[in-house]
Amino acid sequence: MIALSDTTAGLLQRCQTCGEEKVVEAFTHATGRDGITRYRYECKVCTATWKRNHLAKPDIRAKNRVYWNNYGKRLRTTREGWARACFKACKCRSRSKGIAFNITVADILAVFPEDCVCPALGRPLEFGRRSSMNPSLDRIRPELGYIVGNIAIISMRANLIKQDASAEELRQVASWTEEARALAESGATRPWRDPASSAALVAPRQAGPMKREILLDLPRG
Ligand SMILES: [Zn+2]
Fold first, then answer.
1. What is the value of pTM for the model shown?
2. How far is the CA of 201 from the centre of ligand 1 (A)?
3. How far, in Å, from the CA of 21 to the mean position of ligand 1?
4. Fewer CB within 10 Å, N side or C side of the chain?
5. Domain end: 131, 162, 193, which one?
6. pLDDT of residue 23
7. How far apart are CA 155 and CA 161, in angstroms?
8. Closest by alpha carbon to 147, among 137, 155, 156?
């Protein structure tokens, strides 16, 4: 690829395959995030010729089919494959969400649990098929992003439960779950905190003015 500025429309470039000088539009090109348009080293005609000859080779289509049919499986069934796919997805996510990112595939593999067990739930991580026990990359302190020292590998299930919750929030939800379950099993029809104790937590609803009246009170303009 030869880097040229974006103002090169109509300029000439020599194809490195057929040796002909052609306008840059005759070459496959793409404009990068940096605003620079890069042109392929050979012209579109030469690329098309190469592709036609390549696909005419015996069994090449069958080989390609096997390669791509197993592409996703390779990523899902091995630690290394998973780490590579995870790296790519996280990098993409960090860019669209504006999250800090400075990890490599090696950093992900370095924190992978030796025993392949989710450290949060204590159950084996699974590869190979979509499962809630698939490994997933956790940001220990979500606000810091994907940076070295802030990543851990836990099961998808643990990560979904955690989301961006604090330890205190998770404890609150856990104790509520326990209470509500116990109440429901004891035959209560409203298995949540009883009104007497929640009255202190939630301010009672007050009969206020209608919304319409509030709107009418606003200054015009
Ligand atoms: Zn050419």
1. 0.59
2. 75
3. 8
4. C
5. 162
6. 92
7. 10
8. 137
Confidence of residue 49 (pLDDT cuts 50, 70, 90): very high
Listed residues: CB within 5 A of ion ligand 1: 15, 17-18, 43, 46
Buried b (16+ CB within 10 A) or exposed e, 69-99: eeeeeebbeeeebbbbebbeebeeebeeeeb
Q: Output the CA 5–ligand 1 centroid distance in Å.
A: 21
State whether 61 and 79 are in the same domain.
Answer: no
Distance (Å) from CA 31 to ligand 1 centroid: 21
User: Residue 213: its pLDDT value, please?
Assistant: 46
Interval between CA 43 and ligand 1 midpoint (Å):
4
Q: How far is the CA of 47 from the centre of ligand 1 (A)?
A: 8
The answer on 136 and 112 residing in a single domain is yes
Q: Which pLDDT value is given to residue 11? A: 86
List the beta bridge partners of residue 49.
none
Total of domains in the chain: 2
Averaged over 3-11, what is the pLDDT? 59
